[in-house]
Amino acid sequence: MELPAIPNRIETITAFKQNSGMIAAVLPIHYPRSLFRAFDVLPVEVWGPPGTDVSHGGAHLQPYVCSIVHNALSFLKKGGLDLADFIAVPHTCDSLQGFGSILLDFVKPKQSIFPLYLPRGNRPEDLRFLTEEFRQLYRHLSGLTGKKPSEEILLRCIRREEKADDLLRQLYEKRQKVSLSNYSFYHLVRTREYLPAETFISIAEKVLSRKGFDNPKGTAIILSGIVPEPMEVLTTITELGAAVVADDLACCGRRLYASGKSEQPFRRMAERILNAPPDPTRGNSLEERKQYLLRLADQTDARGVVFYDVKFCEPELFDLPRLRAKLKAAGLPSVQIEIDLNDPLSNQIVTRIGAFLEILG
Ligand code: SF4
C-alpha cells in the first residue's frame, strides 16, 4: 500500500519560512525539537546528506572522520544550508564535537551555531545538567529571536511532539501488520527528521487508520546502526526475502522518546532524551544494549541483527565486537556491514546481507 503524499525537505522548509518561521539545521542525534518549535523555529536534521561532493570540506577534516560529518561540512560550504537561520550541533561524538569547533573557529558560517552538550548517563546529576543545558539554549534562542515563549507555550509544544512520538511508537508496534514495504515504512519514520510534528501527526493518523493489514513476509531481522543509507538497501532487503521487524538505528528506533513526567518544561524535555532506548553515544552500557536487542528480538521473533554502520563511526565500532559476541552467546546471530554515505549500494554488501539471511534460514 502506498503512503499518503509527503512533502519533501525543501517544500517543507519553503512553506515554513513563508509563514514567517525560521529554520535550524540540526546535526545528529538527540536535541529538543519542542524547544525550537516554541520559538517558531523548525529543526531540519542533517544526516550527511548522502551523495555530497566532499571536496569542499575535506581540507578541514581527517580522512578517517565519518561521512556524516564530511558530507555535512561540504554541504554547508557549498551553500546547502543557506536556507537555515541557525545550526545546532549536539556533541554526539568526537567527530561532531570537532565539527562544531571547526564551524566556530574556522568556517564561521553566517548562521549562529548552537553547540549542545549531552550527558553520558542517566543519573540525577545528568538530568540536572541536561535541564540546565536546555535552559541555556532557551536563553540563546531568546537572545537571537527576541521571543520569550512562556512555560505554557513550551509545554504545549512538548505535548505536540509527545503526540507525534506516540504515533511513531504505534507505527512501530503495528509495523508487522501495516502493509508498508521496508522502504515505505522507513520513508515515513524518517520524515520525523524534518516535518513539523503536526504534519507528521496527520500523516501517521491516516496510515494507522487503514484497514486490511497484511502480515510481514520473509525472514524477520533487526536493523541496527546509524542511518539506512542508501535507502535502496531497504528495497534490497525485501528483494532478498527479509522483513525489518524492529530497528536500533540512531535516526529511527533510538529516538522512540517516551513522554516526560515533569510539569517543568526544561526538565521534561531532558527526561524524554535521557529515557530513550539505549544508545552508545549517550553512554549506555553493553549490557543495556544487549538486553534491549534481545528483548526486541523476543518481541518481534527477529532471527538476527544486521549492524549497518557508517565507516569510521567510533561510538558504534567501540561496542560492536563485544556486543556481537554477547548476542551470539545468547543465540542471536549478527552481521556487520560498513557503508560510506557517498557510495552506491555495492554488490558485495548485497551478497553479504544475502549470505547472512541464508544462514538464518
Ligand atoms: S556516524 Fe558516528 S562518528 Fe559519525 S557523526 Fe554519527 S555518531 Fe558520530
Describe the secondary-structure layout.
Elements (H helix, E strand, L loop, with lengths): L8 H10 L3 E5 L6 H6 L2 E5 L21 H11 L8 E5 L3 H14 L4 E5 L7 H22 L5 H23 L8 H8 L7 H12 L10 E7 L6 H8 L2 E8 L15 H10 L11 H15 L3 E7 L3 H16 L4 E6 L7 H14 L1
Parallel strand pairs: 1-2, 1-3, 3-4, 5-6, 5-7, 7-8
Bound molecules: iron/sulfur cluster (SF4).
Brief write-up:
The protein has 13 helices and 8 strands. With 361 residues, it is α/β, with parallel strands linked by helices.
Give an account of the 3D structure.
The strands form 2 sheets. This protein has a 4-stranded parallel β-sheet, sandwiched between helices. Strands 6-5-7-8 form a 4-stranded parallel β-sheet, with helices on both faces. It has a domain at 9-150: Rossmann fold. It is globular and about 60 Å long. The model has no long low-confidence stretch (mean pLDDT 95). The protein has 13 helices and 8 strands. It has helices at residues 9-18, 33-38, 67-77, 94-107, 124-145, 151-173, 182-189, 197-208, 232-239, 265-274, 286-300, 314-329, 347-360, and strands spanning 22-26, 41-45, 86-90, 112-116, 219-225, 242-249, 304-310, 334-339. It has 361 residues and is an alpha/beta fold. Helix content is 47%, strand content 13%. Strand 5 (219-225), helix 9 (232-239) and strand 6 (242-249) form a beta-alpha-beta unit. The longest helix has 23 residues, at 151-173. Bound molecules: iron/sulfur cluster. Iron/sulfur cluster is lined by residues 28, 66, 68-69, 92-93, 95-96, 226, 281, 310, 313-315.
